[in-house]
């Protein structure tokens, strides 16, 4: 015998209510429903090598002309940035700023605890700008057989081309610095000051996400924050989340 209509309605309401959070990857496909808090939207932007969904969540002031994208994890063994995303969820939605967060671009590597994706590719050497072949499968910086060979990097490309965020922050570990490479140094300096990390110039690397983004959208800065190694404290996550908001609002 099929369940009664009331039970089906209740089950549906509970499923929708459980889905609303920026803290972890959503558990379903695209969600934009009248039962969802205004401004919250979840989208699947692509799938990993092993078929896991790569998801982005939008919050904040969706009517704003300013937007920021925060990527918590691209290397599967450097995922402390996810705690900053949790903190962004718990903060009061800022006025005049749309926030997109990606929990992880590399769900296969995150689950396996590997820097690389499931094909042994360093995703941060697989983007198209100044790509060159590096290493071999499962070596630390293996670039993949060709630019954009991996579904994860292609998913990021499509999403960024569609949304065109005004500012993008990619979290890595464990050098404990803000990377100064490229233009828009004032933005990076301000972030570094707010979180108490040094600003350091590093040599530009081939095939990185930020190098591609900054070439494709030269007026919309993307930069790397290298968090310290190990777990992130609540205080540190709070500091970084506030810095995201403050720096993005100043754009």
Task: Explain the overall architecture.
The chain is α/β, with parallel strands linked by helices. The chain has a single domain (5-249), classed as Zn peptidases (Aminopeptidase). It has seven helices and seven strands. Strands 1, 2, 3, 4, 5, 6 and 7 form a seven-stranded mixed beta sheet that branches. Helix 2 (82-90) packs across helix 7 (234-249). Mean pLDDT is 87; it is low at 1-38.
Please give the radius of gyration in angstroms. Answer: 18 Å
Structural class: alpha/beta
What shape does the CA trace take? globular
**What integer is the average pLDDT?**
87
Classify the beta-strand content into a percent band. 15-25%
Percentage of residues assigned to helices: 25-40%
Largest sheet, described in full? 7 strands, mixed
CATH topological fold name = Aminopeptidase
Count of individual helical segments: 7
Outline the low-pLDDT stretches: 1-38
How many DSSP-defined strands? 7
Q: What oligomeric state do these chains adopt?
A: single chain
CATH superfamily: Zn peptidases
- Termini Cα gap: 59 Å
* Element-level helix/strand string: HEEEHEHHEHEHEH
Name the CATH class: Alpha Beta
